[in-house]
Protein: Heat shock protein 33
Amino acid sequence: MDLEVRALSEKHNLKISIVDLTESIQEIITLQNTNTHASIALGKFLIANCLIGADLKSGQKIISDINGTGLAGTMIAEFQDKTVRGYIQVPDFSLDEIKENEGSPLSQTVGKIGFLQVSKDIGLKEPYSSKVQIVNGEINIDFMYLLSQSDQVNSLISSLVDINESGRVIKAVGIMIQLLPGHSEEDIEFLEGKLGSLEHLLDTLKKTTVYESLIKDIAEDSKILEVNELKYKCTCNKEKVMSSVKLIGEEELQKIVDKKEEVEVICDFCKLKYNITSEEIKKII
Structure:
C-alpha cells in the first residue's frame, strides 16, 4: 500500500514528510511504457511533487511540469486528494543516447536547460504558480531550489526509485525535511548531525516501511500529524475530453459532422481512448 506520513518536531523546528509510491509508480510506468532511465526519472518527479503537496487539503491540486530539453522531453506530475498520475513525453528513448562523461543518466534523461514549473490550485481565483530554471536535472535539487526561491524555505528532498532487471519497481520512496521559520543555527547543526550521509538515509528508507520510527529516529519529539493512503488515479473524463475537442475549432468540427466522422482522443496519462461521434460533436458546435 502506498502512503504518506507527515510529522512535526517543535523542539528542532522541523517538518518531515515521507511518501511511498511503489505501487502507483509501477502502474504509471506500465501505462507510459517507460525504459529504465525514464522510469526512474518519472518516479522521482512524481515523488517530489507529492512531497511538496503533502499538506494540501481536500479538493486542492498541485501540478509540476519540467522540460530540461533532455532525452525524456516534458514530464508532468499531478497530485490531488491523495491520488497521483504522471506523464512523460518520450518514454522509451534509445538507451544508447546516455553518454559517459556527460553527467548522470538522470540528468541526461531530464536535461539541464529548461524550466521547472509548479502550480498549486488551492481554491482561489487563479492557481499559485512558481517557475525556476533547472539547476542540474537531478530533480530533487531542482525542487529544493524552487522551494528556496518561491517560498523561502530551506528543504532537503531525497528519494530513490529502485528498478529490477525486468523493469519492475522494487521500491519508490522519498523524504522531505524542512526547517520551519524561526529555526536556529542549533537546529541546522542538529539536522546535519542526525542525517549524516544521504546514502545512509536512502538505505534506511529502502529497507524499512515503518516510517514513523524513522521519523522518530531523526527527531525524537516528532509528532505524527497524518498517515494517509495514496493511490494512482487518472482524472480524465468525457467532459474534459469534449472541452479539448472544442479547441479543434468550429470550422473543422463542422467538416467532421458533415462527413459523419469520429474523433479519437487518447488520454496522455492513462492511455484511455475516447471515441467522439459526429452527433456528440454537433452538440458542442
User: Anything to note?
Assistant: The two ends are 45 Å apart (CA to CA). The mean pLDDT is 95.
